[in-house]
Amino acid sequence: MEIEKLSKGYFKKFIIIVIAISIFGVIFINRSKAKYRVTQSIQVVSGEVNYTNPDFSMLGVKLQSANGSSDYVSASNNEVPTSGYKLKPLGDGATDSYCTINGTRNNTGITIAYENGTVTFKGIADQGTRCYLFFDLQTNSELLGKYAVNSTSEGCPNYEDAPSVTSVKSSGSLFCKGKDNDNKDTYYFRGTTTNNWVKIGNFYWRIIRFNGNGSIRLIYSGNGKAETSGTGTQISTSEYNKSYDNAQYVKYDNSTIKSVLDSWYNTNLKSAYGSMMDGEAGFCNDADTGSSIYYFKPYDRIFTNKTPTFKCNTKDNLFTRSGYSNGNQKLANPIGLITADEASFAGGLGGSNNTEYYLHTGQNYWTMSPAYIHSSGYANVFIVHSSGSFDNYILHNTMPGVRPVINLKANTTFKSGGNGTSNNPYEVE
Questions:
Q1: Are residues 36 and 71 in the same domain?
Q2: Is the pLDDT of residue 245 over 90?
């Protein structure tokens, strides 16, 4: 049989048609694959599979609303958060994380873990598996929840705006509730507390209180071991300020002690732990005059009226880190000192010795609360005295110690197993 030859024109048309069909086929297949990648489950094999952003764009990710309510919102592009959240475990609850197999909820044999922005799956063997992840805001409520709040009838000062502290707290431990800036609740330790220890690297700290914004305020208490007394509870001794013959020199931003604290922070905390520090809670350096031009308001509160407060009376007196909306934003580093008010809430009292409460160290150390102007014109700032009472020293006195105070962010995470004691402190991750 004779084989008919194709004409050149027909052959060209045939080639064009074949090419067109091929191109269309490639486009169709790619579009199908693209649609599959977007709408279907990730194809996995059994074993352990790690996913990081943006792999989770094909999974459902829900984040607890920023206001801390029970509402959950979809994450942008379904991306897993890198910090500030805690993955909820697999479960049957409405807001538990869960997986489906071919559309049916089924967590059998599947486990998930979350660390440093990566979710690890184990036990996924079915190609029809799709997982939905719910993340709660990571706050210090978990740590705060380890303590039972005592009432006024159990010995805590009045909870409202002007609590009266008329006696020392020299026995027993209390965990009390107060009011912070913007009328937010703050929770603080009072008395012979022994379970408020935190370890950051090689440094030991005592929790003073949980601030109103959820951050944790800590005071330095040792390098290499937990110190309760002696010079190991402080980083050095220092004058508060070299200049002392004017009221302006009690301001923290003009002080010698600020440079001491900044230097220590830059050397010991900034690089490894700076991201954990809260710059908004701030440090109150209440330098406003009170009953007369010679007395600052902290003196009226601590000695005259015995009504300490956690509230900072003006924005200019609240030293916060630059770049934040709260306070005066005058700090390059988020570090300061304890206030006389905080020491009073902890168990101290003006004019009364107390060697039992947890802030007593047997050393004199500075607060950042101005006291009064001496008749000779010299400015004085409160110290926590070695007797546990309060005293006031001229700014250029070099004897008092320096005990740094910092605030950990509300989303700081801690290693499991700690119970807050000096032998087993809460340790940051």
A1: no
A2: yes
Domain span holding position 330: 143-427
**For residues 168 and 254, what is the distance between their CA atoms, to the nearest angstrom?**
33
6 is a domain residue: no
State pLDDT tens for residues 247-271.
Answer: 999 999 989 999 999 999 999 999 9
The whole model's pTM is what?
0.71
389 has a pLDDT exceeding 60: yes
In this predicted structure, the answer to whether residue 289 has a pLDDT above a threshold of 70 is yes
Answer yes or no: are the C-beta atoms of 283 and 258 closer than 8 Å.
Answer: no
pLDDT at 18 over 50: no
Query: Domain ends where: 137, 156, 179?
Result: 137
Residue 294 CB contacts under 8 Å (≥ 6 apart), including other chains: 372, 373, 375
